[in-house]
Amino acid sequence: MADTQSMPGSRRRTVAGIAFRICTYAALALIMGPALWILLGVVVRAVPHWQWSVLTNPTKGTTGGLENAILGTLILMGGVLILAGSIGVMAGIHLAELAKPRRSGKQSGGFLRTCSDVLSGFPSIVLGYCGYVALVVGLHWGFSLLPALIILSIMVIPYIAKSTESALRQVPDNYREGAAALGMSMGYSMRKVVLKTALPGIVTGLLIALAIAIGETAPLIYTANFTDAIPSLRLIHTEGFPYLTYAVYTFYNQPGAQAHNLAYDAALLLVIIVLVLLIVSRIMVARTQRYSESRGR
């Protein structure tokens, strides 16, 4: 009698489990489908006319190559890594280690977290326009490298801070307690124990932030504009600064076929750079999970 009554409930749970699995596969397809469609679209349009001279010739109007844009993108990546990386990691350390709970139970870093969340919600074009008004025009820096680095860094600092805080909070408290029991100071244990353990997660956040930064166009148009010249490390008072997303956005709207080809080539190079960053970040995540306590158990 009991077995007979339990059969409909068991069948219902089985059907619900199958339906839930189908929904998860459908959600995965909705995520992977557009990504693969964009990736294949870029590859199909760029590979047939690809020429290696694109990597060694600078842009000349809407013709030539993309050497200057590639070098400019790499310089922007290095600058964002230094500027946004240092500020974002320090902010994440403060939130995770120094903003301890008060006696009331509230976190002392709540205001900083709120500011970070608000900053991450600003549209990139708004940040770019603010950079144009305040830095390019207000401080008379002109279209140059430093305004572009500052605006891109402001965009990605919240992501770096959040990923750093999450990575540090995943470090077991036993590590900190063991370091304190051995007589280590807070700063020494932070450098030698906590940060070393959380390093893969922090690096993952930095790489993802770089992938976000190099894919932006609107803030760079307002702060860096563009130039056909090979980029230099001069920070301000230049005629502009080259980068790949400008070629994708601008050259595609030009009437000539050669301009379209350059836009497709720039898009392909950006996709390759982003894929490399994402692959490296996944490797870092795998290293983190390899030595995690939950995986060991």
Which helices and strands, and how do they pair?
Layout: H1 2-46, E1 59-60, E2 63-64, H2 67-98, H3 110-120, H4 124-138, H5 145-169, H6 173-181, H7 186-214, H8 218-223, H9 244-251, H10 257-290, H11 293-296
Antiparallel strand pairs: 1-2
Can you describe this structure?
The chain is mainly alpha-helical and 297 residues long. It folds into 2 domains: 2-47; 53-296, MetI-like fold (Orthogonal Bundle), CATH 1.10.3720.10. Helix content is 73%, strand content 1%. It has a two-stranded antiparallel ribbon. The longest helix is centred in the first third of the chain and has 45 residues, at 2-46. It is globular. 34% of the residues are buried.
Over the alpha carbons, how many angstroms does the gyration radius reach?
24 Å
Helix content: over 70%
Order of helices and strands: HEEHHHHHHHHHH
Q: Which stretches of 5+ consecutive residues score pLDDT under 50? A: 293-297
Structural class: mainly alpha
How would you describe the shape? Answer: globular
List the strand order in the largest sheet.
1-2
Summarize the biggest pleated sheet.
2 strands, antiparallel
DSSP summary, beta strand count: 2
Provide the CATH top-level class of the largest domain: Mainly Alpha
